[in-house]
Specification:
Blueprint: E1 2-7, E2 10-19, E3 28-35, E4 38-44, E5 54-56, H1 63-75, E6 77-92, E7 95-109, E8 117-123, H2 135-150
Parallel strand pairs: 3-7
Antiparallel strand pairs: 1-2, 2-6, 3-4, 3-5, 4-8, 6-7
Length: about 150
């Protein structure tokens, strides 16, 4: 999914690929999350934009453990179903980062947030690209999952 786009005045040349990679290369977990059939996005307390729950893979964790930890930390999810959908890479310039893409459905969550997230909100559609923290990267991952689910 090669995209040449402009986000917030910065021209980015992105190359997003979906494939299978070894656990040790995955740096991130991105969890496309739903609650009552609505997309759940979060807002970091230091940013104005919305983002898909997710975060850094920590040493000693499996990528699934990372996804579950990040989902709890960022949404307060305590009862949920999650599954690994695919692995992905994002190339920006000469840098390539790898991650695991997950889908989660929240059944129950705590309303009090105790980590870096200031707000959790449900959406019926994605906000405009300029209102999404990682712009086209997250939008393309959501689009991929939507296409996969509609087949």
């Amino acid at each position: 999914m090669k995209k040449k786009i402009e986000i917030l005045g910065i021209d980015l040349d992105l190359d997003i690929k979906l494939h299978k990679i070894e656990e040790r290369y995955r740096k991130y977990a991105v969890i496309i999350t739903y609650e009552n059939n609505e997309l759940v996005l979060v807002r970091h307390r230091e940013r104005e934009t919305w983002e898909i729950p997710g975060g850094h893979h920590e040493i000693g964790e499996t990528i699934l453990e990372t996804a579950k930890r990040e989902l709890f930390e960022e949404t307060g999810a305590i009862d949920f179903e999650t599954k690994h959908i695919a692995d992905y890479s994002v190339k920006k310039g000469n840098e390539i980062n790898y991650g695991g893409l997950f889908e989660a459905h929240i059944i129950n969550r705590e309303k009090k947030l105790g980590y870096e997230i200031s707000e959790v909100k449900k959406f019926t559609k994605l906000p405009p690209v300029k209102k999404v923290t990682h712009g086209m990267i997250q939008i393309e991952l959501v689009n991929f999952l939507s296409k996969k689910l509609s087949k």
